[in-house]
């Protein structure tokens, strides 16, 4: 249940949002939704709210404990074939003409990822192959783009990845492909290619890769020299650094994942697709923010306000949130309206509620807090969720309880606007 311990706010969940006289309205940073999604329509909002009552906490993801890989696939892919030994899968999308083929081969079968990719493409009579090596997860890895005609005269184009699984578990190969010409309805070829690329980038071959860029993003944005960044937090000067291409790589993921949301605009998969959008952005930025998070923690953990507090963990989290609440507020209605988390941290871009919530979720998780993000289509707003002992507004996700954190106004953890206090109007985005 969402409760509040602050007298100027509602003290309990209400069935209908109410406004307390004289209370400052929070949530200046509203979420922006693509115009193609027609979020402003009252009937659609009502339908979303009704559907939220049966919404699962996490969209379905797939993986193999035997081989150690996992995939956070775009919504709508359905397994049409699966071998009993777990070495072969085929997926087709429910409403887009996109497909996925996965094969896992014995370690002795190939000498390299490139050999595995070349053989896989040859078996499908693929042509116009462009195979490149990529540095990803310290494993032998190859990426490929290709063309083929699996169904007669209709040309398909796609991307593929071949990578050596850790602990000599074999060679993982995955191809994803879609038509190269525009189809009828909401399936333009350029969006289908973005969907295919997102499939490849959703791969994790171990637990650690769930917190890092996918293979295509890693290839497109190799590590380059770091840049120094100075932060001012609670009267302390924090010297840290960010990767030279970190902002660009995160924006690459943001634009791609935002583009493919259009494919879900008028489907019942829009909400889980939206949740996945934020998970992919979180993943793209997580490892890149490790150094800044460490430097921030090292600079502020011994502040008097933290060290002498009755609840140091709450005080530390509040200090970080206080800092983020002071960032320049900015909206971008011409694009995704989501700023790269590293750009927000470095002051390179303005931000609003969802940009700040993702940044805080990453920084605090690096500091050993469990975090989530709360979204509300009804309020067009986002908030942080942080697992910490405190009084105030909180929401339960699975077996964990998270205090809410409003990022666009200078209030304490656990305070929520009375006009946004109906718990049923919020849904969680959970992270690895």
Distance between the termini: 24 Å
Largest sheet: 7 strands, antiparallel
User: What is the residue-averaged pLDDT?
Assistant: 86
Number of strands: 17
Task: Describe the protein in words.
The strands form four sheets. This protein has a seven-stranded antiparallel β-sheet. It has a five-stranded antiparallel β-sheet with strand order 15-16-14-13-17. Helix 3 (189-201) crosses helix 5 and helix 7 packs across helix 11. It has helices spanning 42-52, 113-123, 189-201, 215-220, 246-261, 270-286, 290-300, 304-307, 312-325, 341-346, 353-366; strands spanning 62-63, 70-71, 77-82, 88-93, 99-105, 127-133, 141-151, 154-164, 171-179, 203-204, 226-233, 236-243, 371-376, 381-386, 394-397, 400-405, 427-430. It is globular. It has 432 residues and is α+β, with helices and mostly antiparallel strands. A hairpin with a 7-residue loop joins strand 6 and strand 7. The chain has eleven helices and 17 strands.
Tell me briefly what this model is:
With 432 residues, this protein is of the alpha+beta class.
Blueprint of the fold:
Elements: H1 42-52, E1 62-63, E2 70-71, E3 77-82, E4 88-93, E5 99-105, H2 113-123, E6 127-133, E7 141-151, E8 154-164, E9 171-179, H3 189-201, E10 203-204, H4 215-220, E11 226-233, E12 236-243, H5 246-261, H6 270-286, H7 290-300, H8 304-307, H9 312-325, H10 341-346, H11 353-366, E13 371-376, E14 381-386, E15 394-397, E16 400-405, E17 427-430
